[in-house]
Amino acid sequence: MTTISNSLMWFRKGLRIHDNPALEYAAKNSSNVYPVFVIDPHYMKPDPGAFSPGSRLAGVNRIRFLLESLVDLDSSLKKLGSRLLVFHGEPGDELIRCLKEWNIKRLCFEYDTDPYYQALGARVKNYASENGIEIFSPVSHTLFNPAHIIEKNGGKPPMNCQLILKLVGEPQWLSSPLSTTLDTIPPIGDVGNCDIIEVPTLKQLGYEDIQEDEPPIFRGGETEALRRLRESTSDKEWVAKFEKPKGDPSAFLKPATTMLSPYLKFGCLSSRYFYQCCKEIEKEFKNHTDPPVSLRAQLLWREFFYAVGFGTPNFDHMRGNAICRQIPWNDDDELLAAWRDSRTGFPWIDAIMVQLRKWGWIHHLARHSVACFLTRGDLFVHWEKGRDVFERLLVDSDWAINNGNWLWLSCSSFFYQFHRIYSPITFGKKYDPSGAYIRHFLPVLKDMPKEYIYEPWTAPLSIQTKANCIIGKDYPKPIISHDVASKECKRKIGAAYELNKKTNGMVSDEDMQNLR
Ligand code: FAD
């Protein structure tokens, strides 16, 4: 490798120093490295009509997490003799301006498979190649290159998570320790007339901070990610015996899983480093769990959705998506709003949606419960609408994983046992018979006796009065009868499956209309 004077490190995800091959490469043999992050207004347009502060695409919890992650990254870079150069604007324009202004000879950035980032990357790459700028864009957000998985599967994305390791084997980087830090980063050169800003506040980005009764559950950044990873893996036996889908979705004082997803989403934590840590722990236990249920395997589920998302045109839509069953979902915005705003009258569902809004995170089986209820279980609302709500409210919102799981939960792809429906009454009760989770997130029901906490509309009026919660006044009546609605959902999905089979998935708009 030749020594090149000016390199630019473009941070997008991968907001970390450890195991960051693009940053390591930029740091090698450069006289100057410019670490850049562009705050992209695409995600942040304020949405004043919405039910909580934030934009259509990114809610306040996620943006707070991002800003904290940038402050943390800036502080780590400063310790290495550098700093983060923050811009606000359309990332392609900003990047190209920096490349010109600073006479950059090498551009480094992590490869990203999300369609939005692919398009952005392509535009900047085109400019760089036309202008003789060396490009280094390694895969480090995922364990494997999704394109490699697809190639090994004969050019098609695998439709089964368990195929991943069979196709590509354990990753090559697994056998030697990944870098945990860097010694130093070459200094920034002259920045000329560029409009560099400090990491902005939420308010400066048009967000209103909603500090309610509880402080935010997550603190963004690599420092916190590594602390949480150490904490999660300190109980080695817990790691070795981890088994999903076992685990209590109602546990909120000490949630049943690692809660590392927001850190993986933004790349504050390297999934490869996490995988390596799990693998090391497994070596110490003969009877450790294995894929697809072990903790390490959860990262393979992530790979799976990345590979399928990357290899499937229109993965985020029903129409034009070859792996998605065509189902005549309804567009009932009132039902959608009742679900989104915790007004369904089913305490288990409403409490989960409160937790989602407040924390920006819910347990995997809680996601199952509310996604099933909205789509194939009860309300028959289009999965794309539920996906949008999750996209906005989850701190860990991830294009491939979110779309993949909504396809799964709505029985549109991957999983087809549409007769198996999560009951909005009995499923939560199995884990939390006293209803502590509901009382915490729906305090209006805090004095409801446990016999009625999952079905408060069945409580006699005298009990409702004593509990200070009159159903229909203080808390809604159920918006549907679960027994009736779930039977109707099964009937409609059964008919849609038949038609998909008959037409080989080529269901016309007219057929769709007839199914409604
Ligand atoms: P752990 O159980 O501790 O797992 C560790 C990591 O493995 C997670 O952080 C995550 O990166 C990965 N992982 C775990 N489960 C899955 C899975 N089923 N699919 C893919 N990767 C997985 N996860 C997201 O990260 N972003 C999303 O936008 C997202 N949307 C979802 C939507 C629906 C409808 C459903 C049912 C699930 C969704 N998930 C999503 C997957 C999963 O629920 C979360 O990854 C998990 O609950 C995060 O908690 P954790 O970090 O404690 O997980």
Description:
Helix 5 crosses helix 11 (295-311), helix 11 crosses helix 16 and helix 15 (383-393) runs antiparallel to helix 16 (399-409). Strand 4 (106-108), helix 4 (115-130) and strand 5 form a beta-alpha-beta unit. The protein has helices spanning 21-27, 60-79, 91-101, 115-130, 146-152, 163-168, 222-234, 236-241, 261-265, 271-283, 295-311, 333-340, 347-359, 364-377, 383-393, 399-409, 426-431, 436-441, 461-466, 482-503, 509-515, and strands spanning 4-11, 30-39, 85-88, 106-108, 134-136. It is built from 21 helices and five strands. The protein has a five-stranded parallel β-sheet with strand order 3-2-1-4-5, with helices on both faces. The structure holds flavin-adenine dinucleotide (FAD). Flavin-adenine dinucleotide (FAD) binds at residues 244, 257-261, 264-265, 298-299, 301-302, 305, 363-364, 367-368, 371, 390, 394, 396-398, 401-402, 405-406, 409. Residues 244, 257-261, 264-265, 298-299, 301-302, 305, 363-364, 367-368, 371, 390, 394, 396-398, 401-402, 405-406, 409 line the site of flavin-adenine dinucleotide.
Major β-sheet annotation: 5 strands, parallel
Bound molecules: flavin-adenine dinucleotide
**Any idea what the shape is?**
globular
Helix percent band: 40-55%
Number of helices: 21
Give the CA-CA distance, first to last residue. 63 Å
What percent strand?
5-15%
Radius of gyration: 24 Å
How many β-strand runs?
5
Mean pLDDT: 94
Structural class: mainly alpha
Note the quaternary state here: single chain
Poorly predicted parts: none
Strand order in space, largest sheet:
3-2-1-4-5
The topology string of helices and strands comes to EHEHEHEHEHHHHHHHHHHHHHHHHH
